Amino acid sequence: MPTTAPAFADATSSDSALRRFLHGLPGVDPVGLEARAASLGTRSIKATAKAYAIDLAISMIDLTTLEGADTPGKVRALAAKAVHPDPTDRTTPATAAVCVYPDMAATARAALAGTDVKVASVATAFPAGRAALDVKLADTRDAVEAGADEIDMVIDRGAFLAGGYLKVFEEIRAVKEASGPARLKVIFETGELSTYDNIRRASWLGMMAGADFIKTSTGKVAVNATPASTLLMLEAVRDFRAQTGVQVGVKPAGGIRTSKDAVKFLVLVNETAGRDWLDNHWFRFGASSLLNDLLMQRQKLATGRYSGPDYVTVD
Protein backbone atom coordinates (compact mmCIF):
# COMPACT_ATOMS: atom_id res chain seq x y z
CA MET A 1 0.00 0.00 0.00
CA PRO A 2 1.60 3.32 -1.05
CA THR A 3 2.53 5.64 1.79
CA THR A 4 4.55 8.82 1.93
CA ALA A 5 8.13 7.75 1.30
CA PRO A 6 10.64 8.79 4.00
CA ALA A 7 12.45 10.81 1.33
CA PHE A 8 9.42 13.13 1.21
CA ALA A 9 8.96 13.65 4.96
CA ASP A 10 10.67 17.04 4.91
CA ALA A 11 8.89 18.06 1.70
CA THR A 12 5.47 17.54 3.29
CA SER A 13 6.24 19.13 6.66
CA SER A 14 4.67 22.47 5.74
CA ASP A 15 2.90 24.25 2.92
CA SER A 16 6.03 26.21 2.05
CA ALA A 17 8.19 23.06 2.01
CA LEU A 18 5.72 21.27 -0.24
CA ARG A 19 5.55 24.29 -2.54
CA ARG A 20 9.36 24.36 -2.81
CA PHE A 21 9.44 20.68 -3.69
CA LEU A 22 6.66 20.78 -6.27
CA HIS A 23 7.90 23.96 -7.91
CA GLY A 24 11.39 22.47 -7.93
CA LEU A 25 10.32 19.65 -10.25
CA PRO A 26 11.71 19.96 -13.80
CA GLY A 27 9.59 22.20 -15.98
CA VAL A 28 7.61 20.64 -18.80
CA ASP A 29 8.43 21.46 -22.42
CA PRO A 30 4.90 21.63 -23.93
CA VAL A 31 6.07 21.46 -27.54
CA GLY A 32 8.32 18.48 -26.88
CA LEU A 33 5.68 16.69 -24.82
CA GLU A 34 2.97 17.08 -27.43
CA ALA A 35 5.33 16.14 -30.26
CA ARG A 36 6.36 12.92 -28.50
CA ALA A 37 2.74 12.01 -27.75
CA ALA A 38 1.80 12.65 -31.37
CA SER A 39 4.76 10.64 -32.65
CA LEU A 40 3.95 7.63 -30.49
CA GLY A 41 0.36 7.86 -31.67
CA THR A 42 1.41 7.16 -35.24
CA ARG A 43 2.94 3.75 -34.46
CA SER A 44 1.37 0.95 -36.48
CA ILE A 45 1.02 -2.59 -35.14
CA LYS A 46 0.54 -5.95 -36.83
CA ALA A 47 -2.79 -7.77 -36.85
CA THR A 48 -1.68 -10.29 -34.21
CA ALA A 49 -0.52 -7.49 -31.94
CA LYS A 50 -3.77 -5.63 -32.57
CA ALA A 51 -5.81 -8.62 -31.42
CA TYR A 52 -3.74 -8.76 -28.23
CA ALA A 53 -4.08 -5.00 -27.71
CA ILE A 54 -7.87 -5.11 -28.13
CA ASP A 55 -8.26 -7.86 -25.54
CA LEU A 56 -5.87 -6.05 -23.21
CA ALA A 57 -7.80 -2.80 -23.59
CA ILE A 58 -11.11 -4.56 -22.86
CA SER A 59 -9.62 -6.00 -19.67
CA MET A 60 -8.52 -2.50 -18.61
CA ILE A 61 -11.90 -0.76 -18.87
CA ASP A 62 -13.72 0.64 -15.87
CA LEU A 63 -17.21 0.32 -17.36
CA THR A 64 -18.87 3.44 -16.08
CA THR A 65 -22.29 4.93 -15.47
CA LEU A 66 -22.36 8.20 -13.54
CA GLU A 67 -25.69 9.79 -14.31
CA GLY A 68 -28.46 11.22 -12.18
CA ALA A 69 -30.86 8.82 -13.90
CA ASP A 70 -28.94 5.67 -12.93
CA THR A 71 -31.21 2.89 -11.63
CA PRO A 72 -30.50 -0.50 -10.05
CA GLY A 73 -31.63 -2.14 -13.29
CA LYS A 74 -29.17 -0.12 -15.36
CA VAL A 75 -26.32 -0.97 -12.98
CA ARG A 76 -27.18 -4.68 -13.06
CA ALA A 77 -27.24 -4.61 -16.87
CA LEU A 78 -23.87 -2.86 -16.93
CA ALA A 79 -22.45 -5.43 -14.51
CA ALA A 80 -23.66 -8.26 -16.75
CA LYS A 81 -21.96 -6.61 -19.72
CA ALA A 82 -18.74 -6.17 -17.71
CA VAL A 83 -18.58 -9.89 -16.92
CA HIS A 84 -19.49 -11.03 -20.45
CA PRO A 85 -18.92 -8.11 -22.84
CA ASP A 86 -19.80 -10.33 -25.81
CA PRO A 87 -22.30 -13.01 -24.75
CA THR A 88 -21.82 -14.78 -28.10
CA ASP A 89 -18.08 -15.22 -27.50
CA ARG A 90 -17.05 -16.29 -24.02
CA THR A 91 -13.36 -15.90 -24.92
CA THR A 92 -13.86 -12.14 -24.66
CA PRO A 93 -12.17 -10.93 -21.47
CA ALA A 94 -14.18 -9.28 -18.71
CA THR A 95 -13.64 -5.61 -17.98
CA ALA A 96 -11.62 -4.55 -14.95
CA ALA A 97 -14.40 -2.87 -12.99
CA VAL A 98 -17.83 -1.29 -12.96
CA CYS A 99 -17.72 2.32 -11.75
CA VAL A 100 -20.82 3.84 -10.12
CA TYR A 101 -21.96 6.41 -7.58
CA PRO A 102 -21.75 5.32 -3.90
CA ASP A 103 -25.49 4.69 -3.61
CA MET A 104 -25.22 2.09 -6.40
CA ALA A 105 -22.14 0.32 -5.01
CA ALA A 106 -24.18 -2.30 -3.14
CA THR A 107 -26.20 -3.08 -6.28
CA ALA A 108 -23.01 -3.48 -8.29
CA ARG A 109 -21.44 -5.63 -5.56
CA ALA A 110 -24.40 -8.02 -5.58
CA ALA A 111 -24.47 -8.20 -9.38
CA LEU A 112 -20.75 -8.96 -9.57
CA ALA A 113 -20.61 -11.51 -6.73
CA GLY A 114 -18.46 -14.49 -7.63
CA THR A 115 -16.64 -12.70 -10.46
CA ASP A 116 -13.25 -11.02 -10.70
CA VAL A 117 -14.74 -7.71 -11.85
CA LYS A 118 -14.15 -4.98 -9.26
CA VAL A 119 -16.62 -2.45 -7.95
CA ALA A 120 -15.30 1.09 -8.27
CA SER A 121 -17.13 4.02 -6.76
CA VAL A 122 -16.60 7.72 -7.21
CA ALA A 123 -16.64 9.65 -3.95
CA THR A 124 -15.63 12.92 -2.26
CA ALA A 125 -18.44 15.03 -3.76
CA PHE A 126 -17.71 13.92 -7.33
CA PRO A 127 -17.29 15.60 -9.80
CA ALA A 128 -16.67 19.07 -8.33
CA GLY A 129 -15.08 18.00 -5.06
CA ARG A 130 -16.53 21.03 -3.32
CA ALA A 131 -17.64 19.80 0.08
CA ALA A 132 -16.39 19.75 3.64
CA LEU A 133 -13.81 17.09 4.44
CA ASP A 134 -16.08 15.25 6.87
CA VAL A 135 -18.70 14.95 4.11
CA LYS A 136 -16.09 13.59 1.70
CA LEU A 137 -14.85 11.05 4.23
CA ALA A 138 -18.40 9.91 5.00
CA ASP A 139 -19.03 9.56 1.25
CA THR A 140 -15.90 7.38 0.98
CA ARG A 141 -16.72 5.20 3.98
CA ASP A 142 -20.27 4.66 2.74
CA ALA A 143 -18.97 3.43 -0.63
CA VAL A 144 -16.47 1.03 0.96
CA GLU A 145 -19.07 -0.31 3.39
CA ALA A 146 -21.42 -0.89 0.45
CA GLY A 147 -18.81 -3.07 -1.23
CA ALA A 148 -16.52 -0.82 -3.28
CA ASP A 149 -13.11 -2.35 -4.03
CA GLU A 150 -11.83 0.93 -5.42
CA ILE A 151 -12.48 4.60 -4.68
CA ASP A 152 -12.15 7.31 -7.32
CA MET A 153 -11.74 10.62 -5.48
CA VAL A 154 -11.48 14.13 -6.89
CA ILE A 155 -9.02 16.68 -5.59
CA ASP A 156 -10.05 20.20 -4.61
CA ARG A 157 -8.85 21.94 -7.77
CA GLY A 158 -9.62 25.34 -6.31
CA ALA A 159 -7.28 24.70 -3.39
CA PHE A 160 -4.59 23.31 -5.70
CA LEU A 161 -4.76 26.26 -8.12
CA ALA A 162 -4.65 28.69 -5.19
CA GLY A 163 -1.43 27.07 -4.01
CA GLY A 164 -2.96 25.18 -1.07
CA TYR A 165 -0.88 22.10 -1.78
CA LEU A 166 -0.71 20.89 1.82
CA LYS A 167 -4.51 21.07 2.12
CA VAL A 168 -4.86 18.87 -0.97
CA PHE A 169 -2.13 16.52 0.29
CA GLU A 170 -3.75 16.09 3.70
CA GLU A 171 -7.17 15.55 2.13
CA ILE A 172 -5.83 12.75 -0.08
CA ARG A 173 -4.18 11.17 2.97
CA ALA A 174 -7.42 11.32 4.91
CA VAL A 175 -9.43 9.78 2.07
CA LYS A 176 -6.79 7.08 1.70
CA GLU A 177 -7.22 6.18 5.36
CA ALA A 178 -11.02 6.24 5.04
CA SER A 179 -10.77 3.92 2.02
CA GLY A 180 -9.36 1.14 4.17
CA PRO A 181 -8.64 -1.89 1.96
CA ALA A 182 -10.00 -0.24 -1.19
CA ARG A 183 -7.50 1.03 -3.76
CA LEU A 184 -7.55 4.80 -4.18
CA LYS A 185 -7.62 6.54 -7.56
CA VAL A 186 -6.95 10.29 -7.32
CA ILE A 187 -8.58 12.39 -10.05
CA PHE A 188 -6.89 15.67 -10.99
CA GLU A 189 -9.28 16.97 -13.66
CA THR A 190 -6.30 17.82 -15.87
CA GLY A 191 -8.45 19.94 -18.19
CA GLU A 192 -8.88 22.43 -15.32
CA LEU A 193 -5.25 22.54 -14.18
CA SER A 194 -4.28 25.00 -16.94
CA THR A 195 -0.64 23.95 -17.46
CA TYR A 196 1.43 20.81 -17.94
CA ASP A 197 3.60 21.94 -15.01
CA ASN A 198 0.50 21.79 -12.81
CA ILE A 199 -0.30 18.28 -14.05
CA ARG A 200 3.24 17.15 -13.16
CA ARG A 201 2.95 18.76 -9.72
CA ALA A 202 -0.47 17.19 -9.10
CA SER A 203 0.88 13.79 -10.13
CA TRP A 204 3.71 13.93 -7.62
CA LEU A 205 1.46 15.38 -4.93
CA GLY A 206 -1.04 12.54 -5.36
CA MET A 207 1.63 9.85 -5.30
CA MET A 208 3.38 11.34 -2.28
CA ALA A 209 0.04 11.34 -0.45
CA GLY A 210 -0.52 7.63 -1.08
CA ALA A 211 -2.54 7.33 -4.31
CA ASP A 212 -2.71 3.81 -5.73
CA PHE A 213 -3.69 5.34 -9.10
CA ILE A 214 -3.52 8.81 -10.58
CA LYS A 215 -6.39 9.62 -12.94
CA THR A 216 -6.74 12.37 -15.51
CA SER A 217 -10.37 13.35 -15.41
CA THR A 218 -13.94 12.94 -14.27
CA GLY A 219 -15.26 12.85 -17.84
CA LYS A 220 -17.59 15.71 -16.87
CA VAL A 221 -15.67 18.68 -18.33
CA ALA A 222 -14.84 19.87 -21.85
CA VAL A 223 -11.21 18.64 -21.88
CA ASN A 224 -10.62 15.16 -20.47
CA ALA A 225 -7.85 12.64 -21.12
CA THR A 226 -5.37 13.61 -23.83
CA PRO A 227 -2.32 11.68 -25.03
CA ALA A 228 -0.02 14.48 -23.84
CA SER A 229 -1.43 14.69 -20.31
CA THR A 230 -1.42 10.90 -19.99
CA LEU A 231 2.16 10.72 -21.25
CA LEU A 232 3.17 13.26 -18.62
CA MET A 233 1.50 11.20 -15.87
CA LEU A 234 3.15 8.02 -17.14
CA GLU A 235 6.53 9.74 -16.90
CA ALA A 236 5.66 10.73 -13.34
CA VAL A 237 4.78 7.20 -12.18
CA ARG A 238 7.90 5.84 -13.88
CA ASP A 239 10.13 8.40 -12.15
CA PHE A 240 8.34 7.97 -8.82
CA ARG A 241 8.97 4.22 -8.85
CA ALA A 242 12.62 4.78 -9.77
CA GLN A 243 12.99 7.09 -6.77
CA THR A 244 10.87 5.25 -4.19
CA GLY A 245 10.34 1.67 -5.36
CA VAL A 246 6.56 2.26 -5.17
CA GLN A 247 4.50 1.55 -8.31
CA VAL A 248 1.40 3.66 -8.96
CA GLY A 249 -1.22 3.10 -11.65
CA VAL A 250 -2.56 5.52 -14.27
CA LYS A 251 -6.13 5.95 -15.49
CA PRO A 252 -7.01 8.23 -18.41
CA ALA A 253 -10.75 8.91 -18.46
CA GLY A 254 -13.14 10.69 -20.77
CA GLY A 255 -12.99 11.11 -24.53
CA ILE A 256 -11.39 7.74 -25.38
CA ARG A 257 -13.98 6.22 -27.66
CA THR A 258 -12.34 4.09 -30.37
CA SER A 259 -10.06 1.07 -30.58
CA LYS A 260 -7.55 3.22 -32.43
CA ASP A 261 -7.49 5.66 -29.51
CA ALA A 262 -7.05 2.82 -27.00
CA VAL A 263 -4.13 1.32 -28.92
CA LYS A 264 -2.43 4.73 -29.02
CA PHE A 265 -2.67 4.94 -25.24
CA LEU A 266 -1.29 1.42 -24.82
CA VAL A 267 1.69 2.40 -26.97
CA LEU A 268 2.21 5.39 -24.67
CA VAL A 269 2.23 3.05 -21.68
CA ASN A 270 4.68 0.59 -23.21
CA GLU A 271 7.08 3.23 -24.52
CA THR A 272 7.01 5.49 -21.45
CA ALA A 273 6.38 3.59 -18.23
CA GLY A 274 7.14 0.12 -19.60
CA ARG A 275 5.61 -3.32 -19.74
CA ASP A 276 5.10 -3.50 -15.98
CA TRP A 277 2.15 -1.14 -16.45
CA LEU A 278 0.54 -3.17 -19.26
CA ASP A 279 -1.85 -4.86 -16.86
CA ASN A 280 -5.23 -3.80 -15.51
CA HIS A 281 -3.79 -3.70 -12.00
CA TRP A 282 -1.75 -0.69 -13.12
CA PHE A 283 -3.55 0.86 -16.09
CA ARG A 284 -7.24 1.53 -16.70
CA PHE A 285 -9.48 3.28 -19.17
CA GLY A 286 -12.38 5.25 -17.75
CA ALA A 287 -14.91 4.67 -20.51
CA SER A 288 -18.11 3.00 -21.62
CA SER A 289 -18.57 3.74 -25.32
CA LEU A 290 -14.99 2.52 -25.90
CA LEU A 291 -16.01 -1.05 -25.10
CA ASN A 292 -18.54 -1.17 -27.94
CA ASP A 293 -15.95 -0.16 -30.53
CA LEU A 294 -13.42 -2.66 -29.15
CA LEU A 295 -16.01 -5.43 -29.47
CA MET A 296 -16.80 -4.42 -33.05
CA GLN A 297 -13.11 -4.41 -33.97
CA ARG A 298 -12.56 -7.73 -32.22
CA GLN A 299 -15.35 -9.32 -34.23
CA LYS A 300 -13.94 -7.79 -37.43
CA LEU A 301 -10.54 -9.41 -36.77
CA ALA A 302 -12.19 -12.78 -36.14
CA THR A 303 -14.56 -12.82 -39.13
CA GLY A 304 -13.19 -10.31 -41.59
CA ARG A 305 -16.34 -8.22 -41.56
CA TYR A 306 -18.10 -5.71 -39.36
CA SER A 307 -21.25 -6.71 -37.55
CA GLY A 308 -24.54 -4.88 -37.88
CA PRO A 309 -25.42 -2.04 -35.48
CA ASP A 310 -27.27 -4.44 -33.20
CA TYR A 311 -24.15 -6.49 -32.46
CA VAL A 312 -23.38 -4.61 -29.25
CA THR A 313 -25.62 -3.12 -26.61
CA VAL A 314 -25.91 0.65 -26.36
CA ASP A 315 -25.02 1.82 -22.86
Helix amount = 40-55%
Oligomer state equals single chain
Count of domain modules: 1
Please provide the count of β strands. 8
**Tally of DSSP helical segments:** 12
Molecular shape: globular
Strand count, sense and closure of the main sheet? 8 strands, parallel
Task: List strands and helices in order, with pairings.
Layout: H1 15-23, H2 30-40, H3 47-59, E1 61-64, H4 72-83, E2 97-100, H5 105-111, E3 118-122, H6 133-145, E4 150-154, H7 157-161, H8 165-179, E5 183-187, H9 196-208, E6 213-215, H10 227-244, E7 249-251, H11 259-272, E8 285-287, H12 289-303
Parallel strand pairs: 1-2, 1-8, 2-3, 3-4, 4-5, 5-6, 6-7
Describe this structure in words.
The protein is an alpha/beta fold and 315 residues long. It has one domain: Aldolase class I (TIM Barrel, Alpha-Beta Barrel), CATH 3.20.20.70. Helix content is 46%, strand content 10%. The chain has helices spanning 15-23, 30-40, 47-59, 72-83, 105-111, 133-145, 157-161, 165-179, 196-208, 227-244, 259-272, 289-303; strands spanning 61-64, 97-100, 118-122, 150-154, 183-187, 213-215, 249-251, 285-287. An eight-stranded parallel beta sheet has the order 7-6-5-4-3-2-1-8. α2 (30-40) packs across α10 (227-244), α3 (47-59) crosses α11 and α10 (227-244) runs parallel beside α11 (259-272). The model has no long low-confidence stretch (mean pLDDT 93).
